[in-house]
Design a protein that fits this description.
heterodimer, A: about 450 residues, alpha/beta, five-stranded parallel β-sheet, 16 helices, globular, B: about 190 residues, four-stranded parallel β-sheet, 8 helices, binds iron/sulfur cluster
C-alpha cells in the first residue's frame, strides 16, 4: 500500500493496539521543561514507578526564566522553586538538563534541533503544544498533557488513536520579502484555526523544498495554530546537511546508514490524504494579524474583513481596530523578536540586514530574545549584536520571554506589540496587551519606522 | 486511580457557558510543582473578590448547594490545555462534571484524573438546572456501568464514553497501569529495533 510520510513514521512505532481502541505508540525522544513536568515526576514517585528510559529524555529551563541577569539568582520565589525542582528531578533520575546559564540552554524547540537531538523518522513529545516544530525534520512530534508526560516517563509509550492526514501544498516562488512566517500565517488565514483539528499535516511543494531548516521549523511550529496536532516536511539533503556534525547527530557510517533510511521516508507517489489544500506562492505577501486568534491575518497592505458575529466584534474591540480598516501606519511602541517560532539565527540575520545602518524610532522598545545560548553566541560572533545595539535594539538573554509573559517580560495593557511569536490571544503577552503577529522582517521594519509599513515598497 | 462505578450526590449548578480553563484555574497558579493546593484555587477569581474577600453571590459559596457533582453550561473546559484545571476540580472534591459539551483536551485530562465528564443533551441540562435550583437537596445518580444519569424519579438520560476509558475507570486503573502491563511488549519492540 502507498504510504504517506506520516504513515511510515507512525506505523514503525506501533508496539501494540487495543481492539476498537487506542494504539500503543513508542516515543523515541522526550523533551521536558520546568512548567509541565514536576507533577509527572511526582506521580511516578508516589507510585514507586521508575523512569523507564532516562537517557531518552532531555530537559531545559525556558518558560519561566528571566532574560536579564541570568547569572544571578532568579528573583521570583515561585519561578525559582520551579527551576530548582527541575534540577532536582533531573539529577535524581539521571536526566540530561541544560539549565539556566548552560551553554546549551534555550527554548526547548530551538535547543533540541540545534543539538541534533531532533532527527527524521523519530517520534518526539514534550509537554508543550509547539512541539510540532520538530516535524520540520520529518519526525512525528506533538505536545502532550502532564498525565501523558508521566505515561512516557513510565513506559516510553503513549496510548493514542491514529490521527487523520492532511496535506498543504504551496508551489511557485515566494516574492521578495516574503518569509516562512508569512507563508504559515497566510495558510492559517485561508483555512482557519480549526482546519487541522484531528489531523497531522504534511507541507509539500517547491516553497517548502526550497526553504532552510529554520524556515521549515517556523512553518511546522504553527501547525497547532490551525488546530493540527503536528506538521511534517519530508526530509531531504537540506535536512541531512543541517543534522550532520551536530552534537547528538549520528557519526560516520552510522550517519550514512541513517541517511539511507531517512531517504525512504518521503510520501509515496499517489498516497492518499484525507484532506488537501493547494496554494500559489505568488499570492502570498508579508502578513500581519489584526485580531485575537492566529487565523485573523491579512496582507500587510490589506483591509480587515467585515463580519457580524459577536466574537469577531469582541476581538476587534480588544485590538482597537475597525472592520474595513488597515493596519498600515498604526503607531507601534513595542517590538518583540523571539519565541520558538522566530528566534533562530536566520531570523536575527534577516532582521539585522534590514536594520543595519538605521536607527529605531524613538517611541519603540525593541526586544530581541534569542532562542538559545548558542543563537545568542552566534549573534555576537557574527557581529549582529553591534548592528542591533547601534540601532537602539536591546539584546536580552534566551527564553520564552514575552511570548507568554510568564516572567517579567510583559507588554503593558493597551499597547500594541508587533511580535514574531505564535499566539495573539487576549492577554497572552501581558494583561490587556495587544499582539500583532508578523515575520522578523516586518517586526524589524516596524521598530525602525515606529509604525507598520509596507515592507515590500522598501525592498523593491 | 480511584475506581468509579456509581455516584449518588447532590449537585452544584454553575449556569455559565464556555467556561475556559483560565477561569477554572488562573494562569498565575501554574508555577506550582505539585498537584496539591489547586483545589483551593479552583474558580479563584469567581470565588473571591480582588481584595480576597469571599464573593457571596458565587454558587460555590452558597451553602444550600453541596455535593461532588458539578453541573455547568455548554463547552466546559475550553481554552488552554493546562491539566491543572482537572487537578483543581478534583482537588476541590468534584468527581463528576455534567455539561452539554466538553472541550476535547479537557475531557481527556479529566478522564486521566478520574474525573468523569458526563455529556448530556441541552434539554436535559436545562431541566437539571431548574430541578436543582428548586430543590437543592435533589439526589443525582451517575451509573458508569450502565452509562446512565438519573435525577431521582424525574429525569434520566444515557451518556457516551470511550469503551477503553470506561474499563479504566470501572477498574480504577489508568493509562500508566495499562502501559506498564505492556512492558514486555515495549521491551521486545526496543530490542527488535536496536
Ligand atoms: S516560546 Fe512561546 S510558544 Fe514557544 S515554547 Fe515558549 S511559551 Fe511556548
Amino acid at each position: 500500500m502507498k504510504k504517506t510520510l506520516f504513515d511510515k513514521v507512525w506505523d514503525a512505532h506501533v508496539v501494540d493496539a487495543i481492539e476498537n481502541g487506542p494504539q500503543v505508540l513508542y516515543i523515541d525522544q522526550h523533551l521536558i521543561h520546568e512548567v509541565t513536568s514536576p507533577q509527572a515526576f511526582q506521580t511516578l514517585e508516589e507510585r514507586g514507578i521508575p523512569i523507564l528510559r532516562p537517557k531518552q529524555i532531555v530537559a531545559t529551563a525556558d518558560h519561566n526564566t528571566p532574560t536579564l541577569d541570568q547569572d544571578k539568582p532568579v528573583k521570583d520565589p515561585l519561578s525559582r522553586h520551579q527551576l530548582e525542582q527541575l534540577s532536582k528531578n533531573c539529577e535524581k533520575n539521571g536526566i540530561t538538563l541544560y539549565e539556566l546559564g548552560h551553554r546549551y540552554n534555550g527554548i526547548v524547540h530551538v535547543m533540541a534541533p540545534e543539538l541534533g537531538i531532533t532527527q527524521p523518522g523519530m517520534t518526539m513529545v514534550c509537554g508543550d503544544s509547539h512541539t510540532s516544530t520538530h516535524g520540520a525534520f520529518g519526525s512525528i512530534a506533538f505536545g502532550i498533557g502532564t498525565s501523558q508526560v508521566a505515561q512516557v516517563f513510565a513506559s516510553q509509550c503513549l496510548l493514542l488513536k491514529k490521527p487523520k492526514k492532511m496535506r498543504v501544498t504551496v508551489n511557485g516562488t515566494l516574492k521578495n520579502g516574503v518569509l516562512p512566517k508569512d507563508v504559515i500565517l497566510y495558510i492559517i488565514s485561508q483555512i482557519g484555526t480549526n482546519a487541522g483539528t484531528g489531523y497531522f499535516c504534511e507541507y509539500a511543494g517547491d516553497v517548502f523544498e526550497n526553504m532552510s531548516m529554520e524556515g521549515r521549523m517556523t512553518v511546522c511550529n504553527m501547525s497547532i495554530e490551525m488546530g493540527a496536532r503536528g506538521g511534517m516536511i519530508a526530509p531531504d539533503d537540506t535536512t541531512f546537511n543541517y543534522i550532520q556534525g551536530r552534537k547528538f547527530a549520528p557519526k560516520d557510517e552510522d550517519f550514512d546508514a541513517k541517511v539511507a533510511y531517512w531517504k525512504t521516508l518521503p510520501t509515496d507517489e499517489g498516497a492518499k490524504f484525507d484532506k488537501e489544500y493547494v496554494f500559489d506562492a505568488q499570492d502570498i505577501l508579508p502578513m500581519v494579524t489584526y485580531g485575537t486568534n492566529p487565523g485573523m491575518g491579512i496582507h500587510i497592505n490589506g483591509h480587515i474583513p467585515e463580519h457580524i458575529d459577536a466574537s469577531f466584534q469582541k476581538s476587534l474591540a480588544y485590538m482597537g481596530f475597525e472592520a474595513g480598516g488597515q493596519l498600515l501606519d498604526t503607531p507601534i511602541n513595542f517590538v518583540f523578536i523571539g519565541s520558538c517560532t522566530n528566534s533562530r539565527i536566520e531570523d536575527f540575520r534577516v532582521a539585522a540586514s534590514f536594520v543595519k545602518g538605521k536607527q529605531k524610532a524613538e517611541n519603540v522598545t525593541a526586544w530581541l530574545v534569542p532562542g538559545s545560548k548558542q543563537v545568542e553566541a552566534q549573534i555576537i560572533d557574527e557581529g549582529l549584536r553591534d548592528i542591533f545595539e547601534d540601532a537602539g535594539f536591546q539584546l536580552r538573554q534566551p527564553g520564552c520571554s514575552a511570548c507568554l509573559a510568564m516572567n517579567d517580560d510583559k507588554i503593558p495593557a493597551g499597547e500594541y506589540c508587533v511580535s514574531t511569536s505564535n499566539r495573539n490571544f487576549e492577554g497572552r503577552q501581558g494583561q490587556g496587551a495587544r499582539t500583532i503577529l508578523a515575520s522578523p522582517l516586518v517586526a524589524a521594519a516596524t521598530a525602525i519606522e515606529g509604525k507598520i509599513v509596507d515592507i515590500t515598497k522598501q525592498l523593491n | 486511580m480511584k475506581k468509579f462505578e456509581t455516584l449518588t450526590s447532590t449537585a452544584i449548578p454553575l449556569e455559565i457557558e464556555h467556561i475556559d480553563t483560565d477561569q477554572i484555574i488562573p494562569a498565575r497558579f501554574l508555577k506550582a510543582t505539585d498537584k496539591k493546593g489547586f483545589g483551593d484555587n479552583v474558580f479563584r477569581d469567581w470565588r473571591f473578590h480582588k481584595d480576597e474577600s469571599i464573593n457571596e453571590s458565587f454558587v460555590l459559596n452558597n451553602p444550600i448547594y453541596t455535593g461532588s457533582i458539578l453541573v455547568a453550561g455548554t463547552n466546559f473546559g475550553c481554552g488552554s490545555s493546562r491539566e491543572h484545571a482537572a487537578w483543581a476540580l478534583v482537588g476541590y472534591g468534584f468527581q463528576v462534571v455534567v455539561s452539554s459539551f466538553f472541550a476535547d483536551i479537557f475531557k481527556g485530562n479529566a478522564l486521566n484524573n478520574g474525573l468523569l465528564p458526563v455529556q448530556v443533551s441541552e434539554e436535559f441540562l436545562q431541566e437539571l438546572f431548574s430541578i436543582i435550583k428548586k430543590q437543592p437537596d435533589t439526589q443525582v445518580t451517575v451509573d458508569l456501568k450502565h452509562q446512565v444519569i438519573v435525577v431521582e424519579d424525574e429525569l434520566e438520560e444515557t451518556f457516551d464514553i470511550d469503551p477503553y476509558k470506561k474499563t479504566c475507570l470501572l477498574n480504577g486503573y489508568d493509562d500508566i497501569d495499562f502501559l506498564l502491563s505492556k512492558l514486555d511488549k515495549i521491551k521486545a519492540y526496543e530490542a527488535a529495533k536496536a
